[in-house]
Fold this sequence. Notes:
The protein is α+β, with helices and mostly antiparallel strands and 286 residues long. The chain has two domains: 18-127, no CATH class; 143-281, no CATH class. Helices cover 24% and strands 19% of the residues. The protein contains seven helices and nine strands; from the N terminus they run βαββαβααααβββββα. The strands form two sheets. The chain has a five-stranded antiparallel β-sheet, sandwiched between helices. A four-stranded antiparallel β-sheet has the order 1-2-3-4. The two termini are 22 Å apart. 39% of the residues are buried. Residues 120-140, 170-199 are annotated as: Disordered. This is Integral membrane protein. It comes from Streptomyces olivochromogenes.
Amino acid sequence: xxxxxxxxxxxxxxxxxxxxxxxxxxxxxxxxxxxxxxxxxxxxxxxxxxxxxxxxxxxxxxxxxxxxxxxxxxxxxxxxxxxxxxxxxxxxxxxxxxxxxxxxxxxxxxxxxxxxxxxxxxxxxxxxxxxxxxxxxxxxxxxxxxxxxxxxxxxxxxxxxxxxxxxxxxxxxxxxxxxxxxxxxxxxxxxxxxxxxxxxxxxxxxxxxxxxxxxxxxxxxxxxxxxxxxxxxxxxxxxxxxxxxxxxxxxxxxxxxxxxxxxxxxxxxxxxxxxxxxxxxxxxxx
Length: 286
C-alpha cells in the first residue's frame, strides 16, 4: 500500500488524487465481495466486463473525498500491487489517458487515510452523477461475508486444513445404501453436518460445480491459482455458495443458509475428478 505525493490521477472535480491502495478487477482476480463472478463484479461498478479487465485505484482528493478511479492499464496496477506486497515503495501514477471513469466513494473498506487532508468522506452529491460507492455490509452473514470467508480460507489454507482430521470423513466402504453414494464427499467434522439440510446443501453445491464442467458459467465463477507443489488452489462460487479446494486435497464449502459455518468435504472417489475437471476450465492469472 502506498500513496503518491503529486497525485497524477484526476477525479471528477479535477482535484489530484492521493492514492491509498489499488486492486485488480480481472476475470482471474477481482474483489469477491462485489459478486460471484467477474461480470457481476463489473456490474456493481457500472463497468462493461472487458476481457482484459481493469485496475481500481482508491484514494482521496484534496478535500478528503473518497474516489475510485478505474483505469484500463492493468499491468501498471499489477506491478504496483506486487511491489507493495513485497514491502517495496512504488508510486502509482496512471496516465490520464488510461482513466476509464472516476467513481465517487470506495467499493471496499480502506483502513488508511491520506495525510494532510480532511478525513475520508463521500463527495458532495452535486459533484457526482451517481450515488457514492460503499463497501458491502459484512456485519451480518450474507453473500459478501460468505465470499470473504472463502477468501480467508484460500489465503490461510494450511491453518484451516490442520484443523481437519481425515479420520472424521466417511469412506465409500461406510456407505451401505445406494442413495448415500456421495456421503463420503459430504461428511464434515462439524456436528451440524449430520443434519439432512446441511448434507443436502453440500450435495447441491457439488452438483452445481459439476454442471460448470459441461456448461461454462459466467467468467470468473471458477478460478485457479498457485498452490505449493504441483497442486492448484481452486475457487468456485455460485448462487448462495462458495467452495475453496486444493486439487490434491479436500474442499471447504460455505453456504448462505449456514451462517458462519465452514463445511469440509472429504476427497472420496469423486472429488478428485471434479477438481481436476474444474481446474481445466478455470480462469487463471496471466
